[in-house]
Amino acid sequence: MGLKVYISGKLFPKEDAKISVFDHGLLYGDGVFEGIRVYNQNIFALDEHIDRLYNSARAIDLTIPITKPEMVKAIKDTLEANKQTDAYIRIVVTRGTGKLGLDPNKCSTPEIIIITDMIELYPKALYENGLEIVTVTTIRNHYSSLDPKIKSLNYLNNILAKIESIRSNAGEALMLNKDGYVAECSGDNIFIFKNDTLLTPPESASILIGITRNCVMKLAKDMGITVREELMTRYDLYFADECFLTGTAAEIIPVVKIDGRTIGTGKPGKITLDLLARYRLLTTK
Ligand code: PMP
């Protein structure tokens, strides 16, 4: 039996799951999205993801036509229809079908799409050996423009960064903000461990407030580690003892090289691996 996809209240076989070419999500990237993981039937950090989705929508002045509990039910129904116990859930809410031209008022009602599938961002071996990342020339969108806090369908900023890192044969693209401070990677937040302290860029660095990021900060605090949100430069990263990235799809992935500089011992760090083990315990609980 093939995969079923939810579109605005109905489930369709994957091949028939279609939306209009006049949808403003397609025409202008006008919409928002979320990525959520299901581990052994447990939808991880569901409330946080739902809240972020509705906040992203509010930030772009889009009213999602169903309530949060209705959205949760739609997600669960889709998972059940697909008999999935482990999955990656992609929720997309677009402005809806409209006319050519930017005006969102010309769109009928927002379209809600729920895809439940699998995702593998990085090969498994990289969780054991670590990832190599490079700083790219594409600057992260500044919060005074399209705030990266909004998980919008406009991901070109990140895609341009990703293209650069692929050209450099690196596993991920490290993006700086307009002031030259470290922001985040194309699809993950970044952390370093240095002088017994866990550091990550603050909200003001122009980043998505990652749900995995929040979870890792809490895990580290529970381990008695000092955690600080602090602006940092590439120099700070080069002299880190450990470095890792966080994201719903990536979970926690060690970084062992940045711009050709070896980080720490060149192997995934102890704290990184400890946090990864604790994160995995949490997700499978
Ligand atoms: N930054 C960006 C740009 C992302 O796309 C993601 C992935 N959603 C993250 C950070 C990590 O966020 P989360 O932990 O909520 O998945």
From TrEMBL:
An example Gene Ontology biological process: L-leucine biosynthetic process
Example GO molecular function: branched-chain-amino-acid transaminase activity
Catalyzed chemical reaction(s): L-valine + 2-oxoglutarate = 3-methyl-2-oxobutanoate + L-glutamate; L-isoleucine + 2-oxoglutarate = (S)-3-methyl-2-oxopentanoate + L-glutamate; L-leucine + 2-oxoglutarate = 4-methyl-2-oxopentanoate + L-glutamate
Cofactor: pyridoxal 5'-phosphate
Enzyme class: transferase
InterPro entries: Aminotrans_IV, Aminotrans_IV_CS, Aminotransferase-like, B_amino_transI, BCAT-like_C, BCAT-like_N, Class-IV_PLP-Dep_Aminotrnsfr
CDD domains: D-AAT_like
One Pfam entry name: Aminotran_4
Superkingdom of origin: Bacteria
Role this protein plays: Acts on leucine, isoleucine and valine.
The family this protein is said to belong to: Belongs to the class-IV pyridoxal-phosphate-dependent aminotransferase family.
Name under which the protein is recorded: Branched-chain-amino-acid aminotransferase
